[in-house]
Specification:
By secondary structure, this protein is an all-alpha fold. The chain has two domains: 1-125; 126-207, N-utilizing Substance Protein B Homolog, Chain A, CATH 1.10.940.10. The chain is 81% helix and 0% strand. The protein has helices at 3-15, 27-68, 73-107, 110-125, 127-137, 148-163, 168-182, 187-206. Helix 1 crosses helix 6 and helix 6 packs parallel to helix 8. The longest helix is centred in the N-terminal third of the chain and has 42 residues, at 27-68. It is globular and about 70 Å long. This is Transcription antitermination protein NusB. Keywords: Coiled coil, RNA-binding, Transcription, Transcription antitermination, Transcription regulation. Residues 42-69 form a coiled coil.
């Protein structure tokens, strides 16, 4: 795992914990936020394993039903396909859960924490400017109406492009990966489009 990729995930998990109108956050407060994000990941790993077990049981049940209750071949095939899909979901959940111990270990590295804290600080101190750019880049959408996770992924990538001198291609690609991991199937395409408009807007301002 790349340090900055881990830092972005920590920042994403931390963003929802930031108070709306705080005084200037101190480093110790930011550290506490990041620690809470790590604990959130650990809890999600346990939930993922429990969900995987339930989905495997459901998959097994559907396989049995396909043998005993299906009225024809097509119905049986449909039940088997449904069972396979559930099993695949369970496997994916287990895979995510198995990544967490490594994630937690690496998140304690100084470079990971430093960048996560840097991101969280920028998100808080420059929130107004970041949201203004995003609002101008949205087409037929309002920033406040987006799902919180999508909104924060957009904010992280925009912050990187505006204030942290991250190449736009890296910022956008990493945002897409975050969306694939934490949001729904369609969000990563939406986020990719919005961030490309953000980049064009930022480039136009420099010209």
């Amino acid at each position: 795992m790349q340090p900055r990729r881990i830092a972005r995930e920590l920042a994403l998990l931390s963003a929802s914990q930031l108070p709306n109108k705080p005084e200037r956050l101190q480093e110790k407060d930011l550290q506490a936020i990041v620690v809470t994000a790590i604990r959130t990941l650990s809890s999600e790993a346990n939930e993922a394993l429990e969900s995987a077990a339930a989905e495997l049981q459901q998959s097994n049940s559907r396989l049995l039903n396909s043998e005993t209750r299906a009225s024809d071949v097509e119905a049986s095939r449909s039940m088997v396909e449904s069972a396979i899909a559930l099993a695949q979901t369970a496997i994916n959940r287990v895979g995510m859960a198995l990544e967490v111990p490594e994630f937690i270990q690496l998140s304690n590295q100084h470079d990971v924490r430093d960048y996560a804290l840097q991101l969280v600080t920028v998100l808080k101190e420059e929130s107004k400017r970041i949201d203004e750019v995003l609002s101008e880049s949205l087409v037929d959408w309002q920033l406040s109406r987006l799902a919180a996770v999508d909104r924060n992924i957009l904010r992280i990538a925009t912050a990187e492009m505006m204030f942290l001198r991250v190449d736009h291609r890296i910022a956008i690609d990493e945002a897409v990966e975050l969306a694939k991991r934490y949001s729904d199937e369609e969000s990563h395409r939406f986020i990719n489009g919005v961030l490309r408009r953000v980049f064009e807007q930022l480039r136009a301002r420099k010209d």
